[in-house]
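User: Is it possible to get a 3D structure for a protein together with its bound compound? The compound here is aspartic acid. I've pasted both below.
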Amino acid sequence: MIKVVKFGGSSLASATQFAKVGNIIKADPERKFVVPSAPGKRNSKDTKVTDMLYACYDLAEAEKDFSKELKKIKERYEAIINGLHLTLSLDDEFKIIEENFKKKAGSQYAASRGEYLNGIIMANYLGYDFVDSAEVIIFNEDGSFDADTTDKLLGERLSKLENAVVPGFYGATLGGVVKTFSRGGSDITGSLVSKAVHATAYENWTDVSGFLIADPRIIDNPKPIKVITYRELRELSYMGASVLHEDSVFPVRKAGIPINIRNTNAPDDVESTCHHPAYTITGIAGKKGFVSVNIDKDMMNAEVGFGRKVLSAFEENGINFEHMPSGIDTMTVFVHEPEFAAKEQAVISAINRNAHPDSIEIEADLALIAVVGRGMKSTRGTAGRIFSALAHANVNVKMIDQGSSELNIIIGVSDNDFDTAIKAIYDIFVTTQL
Ligand code: ASP
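Assistant: Yes, that's possible. Here is the predicted structure of the complex:
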């Protein structure tokens, strides 16, 4: 039996936290492979080492003095090493990092050092082998992830080891250029390691209080989710539930390895389940900061290829679209505001050029809320309840999108109505317990 354990940044932010983690690992001999994040915040005013590294590298890239910033990062690690009474020096590592910063090795290289150094400390503390992820987690030159090569290299390497620490978040191209996943990506590394070693479970240890039906910053004491499917987990993570990186579901799902989120209210994660959800909905998550681009053209419905022409304008500018509800003579494309804002005019001219619409209107400051649940499929009136709850709460619904899987309903509202809308939906399904 092999378990892979991933620890988040706040679980590894200090020597005290490291010691707790050490005890957890040693308490179960099946916990053979460990994936650490970089040290996170020790308190709410603290800065994550990953953010310190990004900031430090920005100075290096601007050819400014970064020695003070790098020293502060070194001190974070030294506090952990000294607190654990280890005889380990990172002096040589920091010399190499400094040189590479001067050579402008890239911000992804810079950020990856957070996990790399924490992995060295963790391996030393546990007496486990250290496996540099740059040698076994493989990316393509364009920064995309190479799943097949990774699975092969990682599997071969780890099969020879009894125990090992594999730092999260980064890997490298076969040519050795370090690349990272997106933020929070150590969850993905944990999932990849689990698949490569055919783990019996992937334990993801985090400081948040369980996977909850809704964000505790919006709802007071939301109820925990008891059983969640991979698909629900991915939907909710993607839409802002910050427990797990949304892409970490795929490798373990394919291999049928359960993800076990370890904390006070730990749910079990399963592919499919006969457990009836406690409520019609499993969870609610959402994100602010969307823009809708509304495109009108008379007789749009009769024009073959109109949708493709519009979407190619986004594609040409490297912009991902989120949702695309449409009418007879109108279609709307939802995009992320930060990504879109920089290229707005280029996209609009491309739509005009490609599709010759009658008008294009843009609305900013929109939020998308996903109401997710396998229980919605067999229940009549779910959408009706959502919309009457929103109407009672005085929230104007700007967009509705329900996939045919009936696993989720996406609702677009104004950013200002975000919290009110989530509260209204939570109340109607959970507080009133209907
Ligand atoms: N340290 C990285 C971040 O802060 C990756 C991770 O923690 O998973 O995003």
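The pocket of aspartic acid is lined by residues 9, 37-38, 48, 50, 114, 168-169, 183-186 (CB under 6 Å). DSSP finds 15 helices and 17 strands in the chain.
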